[in-house]
Amino acid sequence: ALRLRRLPVEVAAPEPRWDRAIWALAALCAGAVLISHRPDTDDALYLGIAAGVADFPGAPLLKGDTLYGIPGLPILLSTYRFHSIEALYGAASYLSGLSVLAVCHLVLAPLWGFLAPLAWARLLRTLSPERWFWGVLGTVGYLLLDGSAHGGWGNLAFVRIFQGKAVFLTVLAPLVTAYGLRFGQ
Questions:
Q1: Which of 7, 72, 109, 170 has its CA 20 to 30 A from that of 48?
Q2: Side-chain half-sphere exposure of 3, counting CA atoms within 13 A
Q3: Which residues lie across from 74 on neighbouring strands?
Q4: Per-residue pLDDT reduced to its tens digit, 16-47
Q5: Are 96 and 89 in contact (CB under 8 A)?
Q6: SS3 call for 126
Q7: Rounded to an integer, what distance in angstroms lies between the CA atom of residue 23 and that of residue 74?
Q8: CA torsion angle for 163, 167, 170, 173 (degrees, to 10)?
Q9: DSSP secondary-structure letter at 176?
């Protein structure tokens, strides 16, 4: 049964015995991101948007289509104008001189993978300070081993973490929840 209880005012400092383990788990997740990938039809669209930002830095941001290469064609869906991670990838590519694929798959995706267990640690240290590490280990284990539906969380988490929705679910949602709980205190 889930019991609501008052959260401690201060989150307890992590036990020293778990310090190395959480960093090793973060490195493992970054490595998992580097060696795993499941092709998805969204890749062409999302990476095309990022490439458009990098290739045409003077153009209005996310105004036109980059998938089909037809001049003047509006962006595929108006909701894509709110995407921001593709703009980040495009800007990082433009500023670094690296290709969008390198920035996306070799630089930022492993960074998101590295941050994922740290984000879950923040949330679980708030919810269960005594057993937080085991919760992080279980969450990461599930996300690494879940091979269910294509749109399932395990197939988004580390396999397609370069997509904004995967970064949101795997890294940002636990952080927003943790800090929302702390703010609510």
A1: 170
A2: 4
A3: 64
A4: 677 789 999 999 999 999 998 777 777 888 88
A5: no
A6: helix
A7: 44
A8: -130
A9: H
